[in-house]
Sequence to fold (187 residues):
Amino acid sequence: MEKFVPVVVIKELSETDKILSALKKSGIFCAEITFRTPCARDAIEYACKNYPDMFIGAGTVINAQQCSAALDAGAQFIVSPGLSVSVAKICKEKNVPYYPGCVTPTEIMQALELGITTVKFFPANVYGGLKALKALSAPFPQVKFIPTGGVDRSNIDEFLAFDKVEAIGGSFFVKEAIEKMEEKSNG
Ligand code: 3PG
Fold:
């Protein structure tokens, strides 16, 4: 997984270029396009075709149907807010990385049983942040986390400093990248 995983919500397919080029300009070559909008599948397909230098995945995948649609569109990784056994099975079969949301020891144990050792920790700010990650790492030293949800410039560095943090997810990457791009074009 890339170090930074921008959580992308594409409302209209036509916004895809603006968002992905802003991310690229800010040095981020990854995008988790979320299944929260009707055009998510098409946006993933468009992104995979037109941005072959980027690692494009699908987020907010909550069932097998969305997972299959995302993979069909070319998604290179799948992220869920929680853990879905059916999504995990499809991803394993297709050999595509799956990052389920896990915040409790039971959920982490379920992920391990499915052969998954990197999980999304979501919503990170609500479920105890770095303190919780450190506590969970004691019984699960083999697990890596992608804290997401409430992560921003004010706390990203403390998460990055912890060696069990594989990557950081967040919508703030998109916001920042677009702001930077607009500043440049205005100035
Ligand atoms: C997600 O689905 O990962 C979250 O909505 C991202 O949370 P954030 O907007 O607080 O970064």
About this structure: The longest helix spans residues 172-186. Residues 7, 59-60, 81, 122, 148-151, 169-172 surround 3-phosphoglyceric acid (CB under 6 Å). The mean pLDDT is 96.
